Automatic annotation (TrEMBL):
Keywords: Glycoprotein, Glycosyltransferase, Membrane, Transferase
Annotated protein name in UniProt: Glycosyltransferase BC10-like
GO molecular function per UniProt: glycosyltransferase activity
PANTHER family for the chain: CORE-2/I-BRANCHING BETA-1,6-N-ACETYLGLUCOSAMINYLTRANSFERASE FAMILY PROTEIN-RELATED, DUF4005 DOMAIN-CONTAINING PROTEIN
Main location per the UniProt record: membrane
Organism: Capsicum annuum (Capsicum pepper)
Keyword Transferase: yes
Classification via Pfam families: Branch (PF02485)
InterPro entries, alphabetized: BC10-like, Glyco_trans_14
Membrane topology note: Single-pass type II membrane protein
Amino acid sequence: MFKLSILIPSLTLLISISLLILLAPRILPNHQITISLPDELDDLSLFNKAIAAETTFPKHPSHKNKLRLGTIKVHQPKIAFMFLTNSDLHFSPLWENFFNGSDPHLYNIYVHDDPYIKIPPLKGVFKDRLIPSKRTQRSSPTLISAARRLLAYAMIDDPTNLYFALISQHCIPLHSFSYMYRFLLDARRLSRNMEFPSYIEILDHSDSLFDRYNARGDNVMLPEVKFMDFRVGSQFFVLTRRHSLMVIKDRKLWRKFRKPCINVESCYPEEHYFPTLLSMEDLNGCSKYTLTNVNWTDSVDGHPHTYHPYEVSSKLIYDLRESNSTYSYMFARKFSPDCLKPLMELADSVIFKD
């Protein structure tokens, strides 16, 4: 009887602790993780290296035309594809097809993976493309840090990276690599030494813009960011090297955007930092549109519409390509992992047939 009286409370305590661990994320408030001083200093050191290297690299063809088209491939500009993920790269086979047969001198791949989440080892073109990564969390400035980290590593890694495309694990390509390369790096513009634009959504209106501006507290963004300068846009972008350098050089706006939010429900720093910074620094150098199609018509809890297998069709791909601008969308999100099979069935006949 004595042993049983001890055993029952012990079992009860063990079960209670197990249930608390299991249910805590659902019943406790969403606490933002903060960026530690060591992590901040690590990033600052990385950014300074990228800035210093930029002054010593040979001038890129976009700055001074050294390119003879079709001859010296080492001088051809590249597109850096930067995957920001906190889960398995579900659509890596589709991306493998995207890169398949393309000249490897024309692109680079970089992956930022949350080290707190265990995912299978990267394979194929993604193998050995993981950069030193840090923890990320939705509705926190850690997503800004991760994107800036990707930009800095890509800039240091290859001075011929001219465009930097930020992509999520839920993104799929809508065109072939060659189609996208021709669109971004039009040989005629390159030969005329014309400036290339960045493709990033920049909007000055939104029903929730005021709440988002004050998500860190009333007037906390002042004086660096006035409400009239505050912008919203897509988290995913395609930036030029010139604008990427602006991003990693920034200290003034980052001091504000790195502050934790009081109102987490209105906190989406990654959707504001980049459009606000580039709008203030060089609005005319940006297209103000994104190349990633996102369906917000039936968003849930701040997440866009998620496409499921029964929705995947050739018509969907064609519809997702269409934009209000003069150019086509290059990527689309958000797709559930089980969409891979129907998408692979459309890869050669639709997606990569431009």
